[in-house]
Every structure is written in structure tokens, then in C-alpha cells.
Design brief:
This protein is of the alpha+beta class. The chain is built from 7 helices and 17 strands. About 25% of the residues lie in helices and about 30% in strands.
Amino acid sequence: MTSNDRIYLRQVQLGPMANFVYLVGDPVTRKAAVVDPAWEVDRIIEFADADGYKIDKILITHYHPDHLGGHLFGHDIQGTADLLNKVKAKVYLNQHEADGAKQVAGLSDSDIAVMQAGDTIGLGDLEIKFLHTPGHTPGSQCFLIDGNLISGDTLFVDSCGRVDLPGSDPEQMYHSLNHTLRNLDEATVVYPGHAYSPEPSSTIGAQKRTNAYMRFANLDDFLRAMGYAR
């Protein structure tokens, strides 16, 4: 858990797919946003309550059920819709993801705040910047908050999200990794959407050196490595 005078950030691993859920808050107002609430909604609320924070924003990196909640492999996963029954909050989704999220999780238009690339919102004295990073899904987005990047299934520690699923696009993934995210300050701390490596976080600088998917000289080389040829 990261906690100082500027930011509260708690990383919690939940569910059978090694998902990371995040709580991010302003230590002054004690208001918090939860990122990708799925699997165990009551535990998420308990974590926030125990740390003295009230959830009033829900940030979604992408609309897959293991991050949003909904129906997956014959099972109903607790998620955003269940959380909305317990807290008063808006759900912040990229403009390309909103319709899919309504179908997957049963959200309504009144639940959703539609965001575009580069939009910002306030969380107390903190600013949350929305980075559109398509590739894994058309509306995948990352959240940049006070030098911390919550990267969903776009960037993992030494890996990246799948590009062979419906709506995925390997060319967009290349640009998201090697332009949008690679150009961030090297000290930016990366918090991924899954615990797919021994380390729960990294930095942009470290990933530029060790993550093969951020080291391709050009798009064609990246596509060949991913099993695609133009």
C-alpha cells in the first residue's frame, strides 16, 4: 500500500484470475476511487472502510467481466453493478467501451460518465488523467495519478495484454505501448491489472529496459513477434 500526504493507493489481489483491484484516495478529503471492482465487492468496501475512505468514483480500465463484473464462462462475477447497489458513485469508462459495458454488466446511461483520451477529473486535491490505450480492447484506458499508472490489461510487468480476443488490435497495442506509455516519465510507477509476475509493480523506465513488448524498433517487428504479418 502506498500512503503519504499526497495519495493513498492500495493494491488488492482478488478472484481466481489473479486480478488486481485498486483503491486510490485523497488523504485530505478521504474520498476514494476504486479501479476495476470485481469478484468480491464487499471485501473492497471493507478495505476502504478499514483505511478510512469513502468510495465515490468507479474507474474501469476495460469492459471484460473479470474487471467489470458480469457473466464469464458460465458464472456470474460480482462487480460494478453490485457495488453501485452499495455506494453512490459514477462509473468512468472510455467512450469506445461504454456500450459494451452496458451489455456485459447491465449498467445504465445514468451510471456512466463517458471519457475521452486526455480527459481529467479531480479526486480531492488529486488529478486523474485518462489515457486511451487501445489494443487489448477498443476502449482500454489507463489512469495516471500523481506519478502512478494503473495500466489494466494494456501493460503488465514484463508483458502486455492479449491481442487475439474479439475487439483486440495488435497494431493499436504497439502504439499504446511504444508511444503513449513509453513516453511517460521513466519514474512513473506501473500498477498492472493482474498478478502475472513475481513483482506487483514496476516503473516505466524499468519496463523500457526489460519488457520485450516495449523494445521493438518498429511496428512490423512487433506484429511478427505477436504472430501477425502485414
